[in-house]
Amino acid sequence: MIRVLIIDDEVRLAEAYKKQLVDEGMDVTTAASAGDALAIVPNRVFDVAVVDIKLPDGDGVELLLKLKQMEPTLEVIMLTGYASVNTAIQSMKLGAYDYLTKPCKLTELSNVIVKASEKKALLEKNIILGEHLQRMRPRDELIGASKQMKKVKELITLMAGSSSPVLLLGETGTGKDLAARAIHDQSHRSENPFVAINASTLQPPILESELFGYKKGAFTGAEGSKMGLLEIANEGTFFVDEVADTGLSIQAKVLRVLETGSFIKLGDTRETRVNVRYIFATNKDLKMEVEQGRFRKDLYYRINGFTIALPPLREKPEDIPLLAHHFVDKFAKEAGRRKSLSKEALDLLRSYDWPGNVRELSMVIHRSVLVSGDRQVIMPDDFPDDLVSNALAEKTDRKPKAAGLLSLAKLEAEYVEKVLDSVSGNKSKAARLLGISRRKLYSKLGENPDPDEK
Question: Angle, nearest 10°, between helix axes 408-422 and 427-434?
């Protein structure tokens, strides 16, 4: 049965529409104003809304925007007089399904409603299918055979069996989000929701409403009630990334939830109870944040009992080949290509310091898969120029000296040769990486410039 809401202040016309549509087996509700409609929608489910552009208490286009905000899959049909056709066309650009000019034929209205409801059903089916595919899609996992990563995986397995809060520590890009997901997947809550939020991306008022939700009318613009992420995560796991950026007022509320298992939504008087496993993460020194007065001491001690430190990539270079080959396989498969890393490319990746850690390595490999085009083997040329030059400089700095110190000229010559090797002998590219002219490069090599080289 198609559920229809008709919003029109011409009561007799609205009732005529309703009678015809009910006779065709539809469930129809009428509202004479925008205010009436906004009061009805939070408490009912509708497939299609028919909205008159001219309403006594507001503009139909504004009502369209509010309805779509409250119910994104609701299809809206606009009713307009001839003088408002341009406005109706504009409303379609804002999300309306279609518009009809008044007075419209009842059969025409019925046909458009049926088509709109079919679109809504298809959209909801696609959403469900997308969620199913998301669950079916293989997740990224923590990859590494180093001593440090073996320890991390052991701690994850150990803490997955507990319901106590966990604090993940580590630089940006070390995989704290993957560790949080691994804890959830290995826990008894794995079939229940895993909900995550990055506190550093939201301003405090928005962060609070996202965490705890609010009741209808709690503030100007709260046209309906909103369920917070904590409530959505009930019986599952809630992951707060960058917890140091939450702000003191929200930290107090988070502490209360941790201690009591309940909170009060904005605009509500009743407590909402949740049963959630909490995982927090930060790239900051929380103890120093406490000393500086930016993080609550009581919350720090509440979440600091079980910690896992994710090591930076530079401290586990033996994991670089495993990660690099994993990312090559992943992104090559996505691109429908077969790819592999040359020995020179892998050596270069081993030499780089990776300040952005695993996330930076992933982005570099993704780029190289695309840049290498139809060529199967990824070469150093496929990496960003600054990465190549930095990796070679770091490799030169780490190179052991066999007997005493080398002369500056010898060091310079070795570095120039390394750069040339990385670009397969292309002198133009080598000169660009070194920041010198081709003529200067030839001079350093003791060669005469080749006029035919470009």
Answer: 130
Name residues whose C-beta falls within 8 Å of residue 377's C-beta, 6 or more positions apart in sequence: 339, 340, 341, 342
Q: What is the pLDDT of residues 11-59, one digit of tens each?
A: 999 999 999 999 999 999 999 999 999 999 988 889 999 999 989 998 8
Q: What residues have CB less than 8 Å from 266, skipping those under 6 apart?
A: 208, 209, 212, 213, 214, 215, 218, 219
* CATH code of the domain made up of 3-134: 3.40.50.2300
Tallying the residues shown for the chain, one arrives at 454
Residue 426 has a pLDDT of 83
Burial 248-279 (b: 16+ CB within 10 A, else e): eebbebbbebbeeeebebbebeeebebebbbb
Closest to 411 in 3D by CA, of 421, 426, 401, 423: 401
> 355-410: per-residue pLDDT in tens?
999 999 999 999 999 999 989 999 999 999 888 888 888 766 655 544 444 556 66
Task: Answer yes or no: are the C-beta atoms of 225 and 213 closer than 8 Å.
Answer: yes
404: three-class secondary structure by DSSP: coil
Q: Residues of the chain with pLDDT > 70: what percent? A: 89
**Number of Cα atoms under 13 Å in the Cβ half of residue 429:** 19
CA 368 to each of CA 85, 141, 277, 418: distance values in angstroms, whole numbers, following the listed order: 51, 21, 39, 20
**pLDDT at 135 (0 to 100):** 47
Give the tokens for residue 46.
């509708």
CA distance 124 to 86: 30
The pTM of the full predicted model, rounded to 2 decimals, is 0.59
Architecture of domain 147-309: 3-Layer(aba) Sandwich (3.40)
Q: Where are the alpha helices (DSSP H) in 317-437?
A: 320-335, 343-351, 357-371, 385-398, 408-422, 427-434
Measured between alpha carbons, how far is 9 from 286 in angstroms, rounded to an integer? 59
Q: In Å, how far are 167, 196, 352 from 171, measured between CA atoms? A: 13, 18, 17
Torsion angle of the four alpha carbons 419, 421, 425, 427, in this order, in degrees rounded to the nearest 10: 0
Fold annotation for 315-445 = Helicase, Ruva Protein; domain 3 (1.10.8)
